[in-house]
Amino acid sequence: MSGTSDDTPRATLAEVARTAGVSVSTVSKVLNGRPGVSAETRTEIEELLDRRHYNRRNSPRPIAPLIDILCYEVDSAWAVEAISGVERIARQQAMGVVVSGTNDRHAADPAWLEGVLNRNPLGVISLISTLPTEQIKQLRARNIPLVTMDAGDSPDSSGRGDVPSIGSADFSGGYAATKHLLDLGHRTIGMITGPSDLMVSTARVAGFRAAVETAGLSVDPDLIRPGEFHHADGLAQGHLLLTRENRPTAIFAGSDVQALGVYEAARALRIGIPDQLSVVGYDDLPLAPWTAPPLTTIRVPLAEMSKEATRLLRALRDDPNLTVPRIEVATSLVVRESTASIDLDP
Amino acid sequence: MSGTSDDTPRATLAEVARTAGVSVSTVSKVLNGRPGVSAETRTEIEELLDRRHYNRRNSPRPIAPLIDILCYEVDSAWAVEAISGVERIARQQAMGVVVSGTNDRHAADPAWLEGVLNRNPLGVISLISTLPTEQIKQLRARNIPLVTMDAGDSPDSSGRGDVPSIGSADFSGGYAATKHLLDLGHRTIGMITGPSDLMVSTARVAGFRAAVETAGLSVDPDLIRPGEFHHADGLAQGHLLLTRENRPTAIFAGSDVQALGVYEAARALRIGIPDQLSVVGYDDLPLAPWTAPPLTTIRVPLAEMSKEATRLLRALRDDPNLTVPRIEVATSLVVRESTASIDLDP
C-alpha cells in the first residue's frame, strides 16, 4: 500500500490520470486552470496531484491585469460603493475589474469559479460572507488570492480564520450610534439588525448592548428586531416598533437603506423626524445626506477598505504564505438632522 | 507610385514594419492586439496593414467570455442599474462583466483601450456619450463590437451614425411627464434638464415643450434650467425656481437623483410636496419609491436595455457588417405621491 510520505515517487501526468480514472487531457485542464471540468472532478484531481507531489511547472500562467469582485447583490448601494472604490484603485494601476453577482450569500456559482480559474486575475475580493471551503481550495491551488470585505464572515466560521478579511469597526460603530442617542436623552431605543448569520450584525448589536448597559440601563430584547439590510425590512420592523405600546423615541437601523424604510413607516404613522423620532443609519452612503431629513449615520470608509483589499491582493501574489490578520478600519459618527434631543422630564 | 488598387501585392510583416519604421515585433503586437504600443503607432500600423492588404491569419484569437462596460460614473445610481442588468444576463451565459470608469464623458483612458484590446471581450457596452473616432477604429480593427447605451449620443455627432445604440424613448418620456402635470391643472411648470450636449436631455426638453405647446400654452424659457444629473443641480436649480417671482407649482427634474435635490430645496423653503409643489423625476431607480413622498417618475426600462445591448454584441460578433438601427425601448409614467392636482381657480 502506497503511503503519502515524502519519499513517495513523484507521479507523472499519466499516472495521475489513471488513478483518477480520467483522461490525461482532463488532468491537464485542471493543472492549467482551463474550463470544462466539473467542480467535483477538479477537486479530486487537485487533491491527487497534491498527494502524489506532482511537480507543477515552474512557469506559471501570466496573471491577467484584472481584479474579480464577487457580490451578493450587485445593485445594493453598499456593493456599488465597494465596486467603485476598487475600480478607482484598479484604474490607477491599469487593471480592469470584473464584477459578478451570486444568488446565494454563502457560495458562488460554479460557472463563476470556472471563469476566475480560467482568466487568472490578480485576485478575488469577495463581498459575500463566505465561500465554501471547496471553492477556497480551488482558488488556492491556482495561487489566486482571495480577500473578503465586509459583508463579513459568519460568526461561527471565524475558526476557519484562513481567508484574509478587511472590515470596519462594527462594534465601535454600534456603540457610537447608540451613545449618541443616549446622550440626546433617549431611553427607549429600538434597533433593527442585519442578518444574524453575519458577523457585522452581531458586532453592531453587541455595540448597542454595551452602550445601553454602560449607561446603567437594561436592554429590552423586544426592541431589537431582526432584518435583512433592505428597505422593506426597515419599513416592516419600523412599523412594528412604532406601533407597540411604549414606542421607542429613537431607532438605530442596520443600514442607511433600512433607515429609509423606518422613515416611510414613520411618515405613514404621521410621526415626525426628528421631533418625535430620532433615526440613525449605518454606512453613510451617498444618499444619506439627500434624505428628508438628512440622515445621521455611521460612516464606513469603503474607499479606504477597497484600497486596502486591493493592496492585500498584490501582497498575497508576491507572497502566498503571507499571514494576514484581519484588518479593521475605523468607523465614525456623522451627525445630520434625523436625530434630536428629547425632554427627559416632560 | 504604388496605388491602393486590388492588384497591389500583399505585404509581408517585415515590409509593413520597414515602411512604418518600427520593429517586426511592434507590428506583431498590433496584429495580435497585445499591449505595449502607443495609440498613435497602433493606428498608423493598422492603417498601413489595411492599405497594404496584409493577410491577417484566419485563426482569430479566442474571444474571452467577458463583456466590457465603460461608465462615466461607476457609482451613479443610473450606471449601477445598467451594470447589474448586464451582469444578470452575462451570468446566465457564463460570462464575466468588466466594469471601468472614466473621468471624461467623451473618451476612455488609453490604458482602458489597451486592456480591452488585450483581453478581447465579446464586446463593449459604453454608457458614456461618445468615444473618440480613433478609439472606435481600434476596436473595429480587432472586431470587438461596441454598443452605446443611453447616456446617449451627442446631438451633433448623430451624423457619425455608425455605432449601434440602445436608448429609451426620451421624447415620449418628457412629453408624458409634462402632460401628467398639465392634466393635474399645473400651468407654471419648471424643468431641470440634463447636460445640453447629451441627446437624452435634448429629447426630453423637446417632449416638455411639445406637451406645453399642445396644451395651448407658451413655454417660458426662464423655467427651463440646465444641470448635470446630480443631486446638487436639483438642489441649486430647484432653489432658483422656487424663489423666483411667480414660482412654479410643479417641477419636472431630469433624473430621480436631481428630483431629490428639488425635495431638499423645497424642504429648506418649507414648501410641502405634493400640497404646494408637484415633482416628477426620471429613471425610476430603486430609490424612487423610498423617497418621502414616494416619487412620481418616468420609468426607463434599464433591464430590457441591458438585455438588448448584450444580445446585440453577440449578433455583431457573428456578423460584423450587421447594420443596426438605433433601438429605442418604451418609457412609461409611474404615478406615486409627489404629484397632486391644484385648484385652477383659487
Automatic annotation (TrEMBL), chains A, B:
Span of domain HTH lacI-type: 11-65
GO molecular function ontology, one term from the record: transcription cis-regulatory region binding
Top-rank taxon: Bacteria
Record keyword Repeat present: no
Keywords from the UniProt entry: DNA-binding, Transcription, Transcription regulation
PROSITE patterns: HTH_LACI_1, HTH_LACI_2
SMART domains: HTH_LACI
Stored Gene3D superfamilies: 3.40.50.2300, lambda repressor-like DNA-binding domains
PANTHER family, A to Z: LACI-RELATED TRANSCRIPTIONAL REPRESSOR, LACTOSE OPERON REPRESSOR
Protein name per Swiss-Prot or TrEMBL: Transcriptional regulator, LacI family
Origin species: Microlunatus soli
